[in-house]
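Researcher: Structure prediction, please.
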Amino acid sequence: MVALVVPSEYGYVLGTAVASALYLFSLGVKVGGARRAAKVPYPYVYAEKNEAEKDPKKNIFNCTQRAHQNTLELFPIYSTLLLVGGLKYPMLSSGAGAFFILGRIIYANGYATGDPAKRNRGIFAMLGLLALVGTASCTVYNLVMN
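Model: Predicted structure follows.
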C-alpha cells in the first residue's frame, strides 16, 4: 500500500467542506424561522397533513423541513466522497462539491416556496455528486492498486 500524501490544494476541499457545513447550519436556521411562522411546537417534526392543507405557513414549514431533512440524508455520502476524492483530485472534487451545494441551495429554496415541484430546479446537484463518486472511486482504486 502507498503512503498517503495530502496535496497542497487539499485546502480547497476543506474550504468546500466547511462552506457545506455552514450551509447546513443556515438551512437549520431557515427551518426554525418557518417553524415559528407556522407556530409548529417542538417536538413535532412536521405539521399534521390536515393542518398543512389548510394553512400555507404550515405547508411551507413542512416543505422547508423536508428540504433540510433530505439534505441531511445526503450529507454523509457527499462529505465522504468529497474528502476521499479530494486526496487525489482536490480541485475537481472541490469544484464538484461547490456545484453540488449550489444545486442543493436551489433545491431547498424551491422546495421552501411551498410548491414541492419547484425543488426539481436543483436536480443538477446530482451531477456534482456523480463527479464526486468518480473522483472518490479513482482515488480508492489508485490507493489500493499502487
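Model: The CA atoms of residues 41 and 74 lie 26 Å apart.
Researcher: Thanks, that helps.
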